[in-house]
């Protein structure tokens, strides 16, 4: 969904669920059915290409299944719950500590590889 340039410039952006979140919730809610990419896009009112990218990423994480043109949530609903729990915990921690600043992270990152990564 586009935002006004004023919202973009000020950083006051809508705080809505990401497309992958919307896709997963939609498929989970309708877990007794499989849908085409276009049907999912219509169901969550998002661009079909954006939904396609989200579906591919969710498939890589084994959160959705794909056969032909159809997509469905994984049969391993515990996996979906674990992903949701991790996402919720991460959002809570980011909210409490302001998130991770990549520049700050890089300044304290070790130069030498971890012993487990050494040959």
> Which regions are unreliable across 5 or more consecutive residues at pLDDT < 50?
none
SS field, number of helical segments:
6
What is the 3D form? extended
What's the total number of strands?
3
Radius of gyration: 18 Å
N- to C-terminal distance: 48 Å
Strand content: 5-15%
Q: If strands are numbered along the chain, what order do they take across the biggest sheet?
A: 1-3-2
The largest β sheet comes out as: 3 strands, antiparallel
What would your notes on this structure say?
The protein is mainly alpha-helical and 119 residues long. It is built from six helices and three strands, in the order ααβααββαα. A three-stranded antiparallel beta sheet has the order 1-3-2. The longest helix has 21 residues. The chain is extended and about 50 Å long.
Keywords:
single chain; 119 residues; mainly alpha; three-stranded antiparallel beta sheet; 3 strands; 8% strand
How would you concisely characterize the structure shown here?
With 119 residues, the chain is mainly alpha-helical. The chain contains 6 helices and 3 strands. The protein starts with a helix and ends in an 11-residue tail after the last helix.
Q: How is this fold's topology laid out?
A:
Blueprint: H1 5-10, H2 19-29, E1 35-36, H3 37-44, H4 48-60, E2 64-67, E3 70-73, H5 77-97, H6 102-108
Antiparallel strand pairs: 1-3, 2-3
Helix pairs in contact: 2-3, 2-4, 3-4
């Amino acid at each position: 969904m586009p935002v006004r340039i004023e919202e973009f410039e000020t950083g006051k952006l809508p705080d809505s669920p990401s497309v992958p979140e919307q896709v997963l919730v939609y498929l989970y809610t309708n877990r007794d059915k499989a849908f085409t990419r276009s049907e999912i896009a219509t169901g969550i009112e998002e661009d079909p290409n954006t939904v396609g990218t989200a579906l591919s990423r969710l498939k890589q994480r084994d959160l959705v299944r794909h056969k032909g043109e159809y997509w469905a949530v994984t049969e391993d609903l515990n996996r979906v719950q674990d992903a949701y729990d991790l996402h919720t915990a991460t959002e809570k921690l980011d909210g409490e500590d302001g998130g991770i600043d990549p520049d700050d992270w890089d300044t304290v990152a070790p130069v030498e590889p971890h012993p487990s990564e050494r040959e």
